[in-house]
Amino acid sequence: MFADQTSVILLCFVKCFELYLHFLILFLKPYYSPECPPSFTPAKQTYTTVSCSLQPNHEGASFSVSAVMAVYNPKPEFFRQAVLSVLGQTTPVLELVLVNDGGSDEFKTFLPDDDRIRVFTKPNEGVAATRNFAIKQCRGEYIAFLDQDDYWYPDKLKEQTDMIPALGDICMVISPVDIVDEKNNILKNKKTIKISSTYQRKTSEGDFLLNLSEANFIYSSVPMVHRKVFDDVGLFDSLAQPHDDWDLYLRIVINSIPTYCYRERALSVWRLHDSNESHKVLAMLRSKCQVEKKLIKVVNDKKVHAILNTNLLIDYIERDHIIYKKGRYGCYRVLLRSHLQKLVKEFFNCRGEMYGAYPELRRIRKTILKASRRYVLSYYYEKRHKIIW
After folding, report:
1. Cα–Cα distance, 70 to 133 (Å, whole number)
2. Residue 288 to residue 280: CA distance in whole angstroms
3. What's the pTM?
């Protein structure tokens, strides 16, 4: 009986505390919302050239594309579809470079008889090191990446090469994706619609570096990159895995290498299934923090800095929530106090740079409310756990 009364009282306290924070943040909102802009000078865009509608001149031009795929014990049906989607391109590839990252050789039995396929084997080092190994083997002028469980539509390379003003230009070309399930059904839900709309919005408006710094919207089976780009910006960073692709794209943009954005329709397909790297939440958060910390050190743009610092603190808090779910409430509160305090401070210090980024401000408010609620609840769950045991 006493425990039930305590639960009710605590729940009421949590709700009151949440309501207090909610009104506090709403009270502060007008000072930072687009309707009441603070005085600041928008950062100058100096990092990249983005074009979405070009008239290419490819008469008499010759070029070659190497397709790259890192392989590690793939599912046969997915892998075969991926390989055939490369070999069946309307603009033929020069080669398909397959690198086995220390897995079984069984995948070779599913390969068609095609002289363009080149297979290499190396010790297991992860996808970033495997892609780097593959890049060094490539003979094509452009390099296009494909994951072993995704696939391309037949005209993917044709549409992407048509985006380049003059073939041979050192650049990166990107395009949208469709998302399918394990049975190749295209998924149309809130998440996939948001992914599509995010790509369209971020490639058609605003500062491209700022948009890419907020979060990666370029899927790994999408880019086609000139091989000399890697001479300028370096290869994939294994320490940033599984966000090594985002890290590379950011370096390309920072080095002012043109990025051409195809927006008409999806050219690649990303397959959603239980083995996706994106399901490994803690590893994803750790690598995302790693990339954000790297970028903070090299970018001077104040607005990008504000977004990066804020996102880094939010990611730290998301990592704290994993500790909360494991029942380590004391450790959770210690970490959260530090990160939450810094996030609120960052919110006030960078309100000028945040102007116009309403989704980011809404994300901050949501993070503060969720973290504060769990902070209070952690005392209750900790107390209940002690009573039970």
Report:
1. 9
2. 12
3. 0.84
